[in-house]
Each structure stands twice: as structure tokens, then as C-alpha cells.
Specification:
ARM-like, transmembrane helix, HEAT repeat domain-containing protein
């Protein structure tokens, strides 16, 4: 037996009420990512900290909102609480704006997503101790896969003449290990090398 019209209307109104909050949250998330997260996300992708997929997060959220908004509006139309023409115009305008925004996001994804972080090897061997110290500090802010490739050089810098270089190299090694596995001191390099070799890091690179 088909549901009574009153039952159908009740279910439709319940859906309309339930859909409002999720739609607002999706819209707020899309606006937040687009307005406030863009530069920081691009920087993180360039540094290799996160994947380039986050650069299409904003348009994906906008597309989700448009689909949800269209369903919501036409549910209101079906319930007799909204004009069908207005609903169609609103959805059409949103789709039109989305078609203008999407190519820009995809281009950013293509250009930034294919960028590679700067190789720090040269700077870890720079004559200037400040450059070596900064490069040693930067390694712990890279993605783990990239940072581990610099571990052999960081271990070598534990014997650097500059105290700041030694400090930054030790801090990065401890950060990557999650603990101060090798400590400091005259024998620190040997202890750290033994530790990282047990973790599968091959020495003699970078």
C-alpha cells in the first residue's frame, strides 16, 4: 500500500529540517578552506608535508554543497514551500559560479601539485654555519619520507664546529625518531647512526 500523502509530506518536512545544519556546515567549511586555508595548504604541499589532493578540497566542498542545496531547495518546492522558478535560478547560478572557479583550482592543483621541495643537501654542506643550521632545522618540517633521506647528513653534522648546527641537527634527529635515541656528546654520531641503521636508513647518501 502506498504511503498516505500526509505521511509523505511529514517525511519530506523532516528531511528539510534535518538537511539545514549539514548544508550550513559544508558551506562554512568550503568558505573557510577557500579564504583562510589556501596559502597555508599550498605552502604545505610545496614543502611535501601533505598531498596535492588538498588543493581541490575547496571546490569539492562547494560541489557537495551545490548538490545538497539543490536537493534541499527542490524538497521545499515539492512541499509547496518554495517557488520552483526561484529554486532553478539559484541552483543554476551556483553551478555557473562553480564552472568559473573550478578551472582556477585545477590549475593550482596542477602547478603546485607537481612542484618539488628544494633539495637541502647543498645547504646542509654550505660553508656558512647559519645556512647549515637553517637547513638542519628545515629537515624536521619536511614530510617524513623526504626528511629521512637527510638523516645521514644530519648525523654527520653532530660533529660540526658550530654549536648551533649541532643543536639543530640533534633536534631534527630526535624529532624524526620521536625520542632522543642517540643523545648528545662525542659519541652521539655513532649512537645515532646505529639507531637509524636499525630503522632501515642507509648511510652513505646525501
Amino acid at each position: 500500500m502506498a504511503p498516505e500523502p500526509r505521511e509523505q509530506g511529514g517525511a519530506l518536512l523532516a528531511f528539510i529540517r534535518a538537511a539545514r545544519l549539514p548544508l550550513y556546515l559544508i558551506l562554512l567549511a568550503a568558505v573557510g578552506v577557500a579564504l583562510f586555508g589556501g596559502p597555508s595548504l599550498e605552502r604545505a604541499v610545496r614543502e611535501g608535508a601533505i598531498g596535492s589532493w588538498v588543493l581541490v578540497l575547496a571546490p569539492a566542498l562547494v560541489a557537495t554543497f551545490i548538490v545538497g542545496f539543490a536537493v534541499y531547495r527542490f524538497a521545499l518546492v515539492s512541499a509547496g514551500r518554495y517557488h520552483a522558478g526561484k529554486a532553478m535560478v539559484q541552483v543554476a547560478l551556483m553551478v555557473l559560479v562553480f564552472t568559473f572557479v573550478l578551472p582556477t583550482s585545477l590549475e593550482r592543483y596542477r602547478t603546485v601539485g607537481t612542484a618539488h621541495p628544494v633539495d637541502l643537501s647543498r645547504y646542509l654542506r654550505a660553508p656558512d654555519p647559519d645556512a647549515r643550521a637553517m637547513a638542519a632545522e628545515l629537515t624536521r618540517h619536511r614530510s617524513r619520507e623526504d626528511a629521512l633521506s637527510y638523516v645521514p647528513r644530519l648525523v654527520g653534522l653532530l660533529g660540526d664546529p658550530s654549536p648551533e648546527v649541532r643543536r639543530q641537527a640533534h633536534a631534527s634527529l630526535a624529532s624524526l625518531a620521536g625520542e632522543d635515541a642517540g643523545g648528545e656528546g662525542s659519541d652521539a654520531a655513532a649512537r645515532w647512526q646505529a639507531y637509524w641503521e636499525r630503522q632501515g636508513v642507509r648511510f652513505g647518501t646525501r
